[in-house]
Amino acid sequence: MKITFCGVRGSIPSPGKEFIKYGGNTACIHIDADDKDIILDSGTGIRALGARLIKKTTPIHLLLSHNHWDHIQGFPFFAPIFQSQREINIYPGLTELEEPEAILNQMTGSLFPVHRDMLTAEIRVHNLASSITEWEIGSVHIKRLRMNHPGGGSSYRIEANGKSLVYITDNELYPPYTKATDFLDFVAFAKGADLLVHDAQYLVSDMPAKSGWGHSVAEEAVKLAMACNAKQLALYSHDPTRTDTDIDEIIEHSQLITELGGAELTCFAAEENQVLVLA
Ligand SMILES: [Zn+2]
User: Fold this and answer.
1) Which of 15, 50, 147, 207 could form a disulfide with 79 if both were Cys (CB 3.0 to 4.6 A apart)?
2) How far apart are the CA of 66 and the centre of ligand 1, in A?
3) Which residues have CB under 8 Å from 202's CB, separation 6+?
4) Verdict on whether the full-model pTM lies above 0.85
5) Nearest in space to 30 (alpha carbons), one of 1, 73, 65, 68
6) pLDDT digits (tens, 9 = 90+) for 195-230
7) From ligand 1's centre to the CA of 27, what distance in Å?
8) How many A from CA of 133 to the centre of ligand 1?
9) CA–CA dist 173, 182 (Å, integer)
10) How far apart are CA 54 and CA 279, in angstroms?
């Protein structure tokens, strides 16, 4: 399983010289698993990915966590949507307001100049019943679990060839509102993950002001990774105001926690264009 971080930023793109190391594009991860192209979210990071995938003609599978703008905004700029008869399968997130075609409907009306009816790819929206928690894409096994976030959404566990990636963003592990999923259920969901990608947008010092905004404190993501016995943790959904230096400090602190505890956990902050191979 080959994983490429195409966008790692939360909320809004953050261009600028202070954001070069980790990158400014919003949520998007490309997974090449058993020759299947699977994409997690369609933030602005998907634009550059599209320039690579347009060289192929095989089906694309796009799993959405939810419809907040930073997770769908890149879709109109994803070149394969204009590729004649290219099969693009979209799996919407488990949002509270059921709008499975929101990603396409941003290309209607006054929001974008190209209408969804002008897309030449064969786009299929798989609006699975909420009771369906796992399915297959070829030999790749997909599981989903509701996340704690205003408006709801899905986290994913992707397994192929004995390796597993767990993607949980945007997620508030300890929300002040009624939670969709308990911490212990996230531990079970992410158990033994080869790579856990988890929201780490906030610092302890951001609280309580940002409690309820739907994201987690980095230390909470470390706690989950240690509890579920993940092999690697990628801190993800970096706050748009967080500079490269700020993120370096967060990761140094996170690594100190694991080292002092003797945990066998590799902890890093996801960087745009970073490639990992789980083999
Ligand atoms: Zn969100």
Assistant:
1) 50
2) 7
3) 210, 213, 215, 216, 217, 218, 239
4) yes
5) 1
6) 999 999 999 999 999 999 999 999 999 999 999 999
7) 10
8) 21
9) 8
10) 26
